[in-house]
Write a structure and sequence with these properties.
The chain is mainly alpha-helical and 86 residues long. It has helices spanning 3-9, 11-25, 30-53, 57-83. It is elongated. The chain crosses the membrane at residues 7-26, 46-69.
Length: 86
């Protein structure tokens, strides 16, 4: 299997990572939510690589915007953990 075929398959791990991240971010646990944002960032990378491979410029642009929001989410969940009472 060549590199192009491997890159074509990359959409499936990206899909799984996105769904898993959404599940984690919906958790009531700040630790799970924080993990979810990291998984979302991983999915942003996977989708971006796939988008570059398929020349889907709008998808890559979307992933950059979503990655910025996921970084914001990481920062906010980090503050929650510090601010929550004992």
């Amino acid at each position: 299997m060549g590199m192009s075929e491997w890159l074509d398959l990359l959409q499936w791990p990206a899909f799984v990572a996105s769904v898993a991240a959404a599940w984690l971010v919906a958790s009531s646990s700040p630790e799970r939510r924080n993990r979810g944002f990291w998984v979302f960032l991983f999915s942003n990378v996977l989708w971006s690589v796939w988008g570059i491979h398929t020349q889907a410029a709008a998808l890559v642009a979307l992933q950059l915007c979503l990655a910025a929001m996921n970084v914001r989410g990481l920062l906010k969940t980090g503050k929650e953990e510090v601010c929550e009472p004992g």
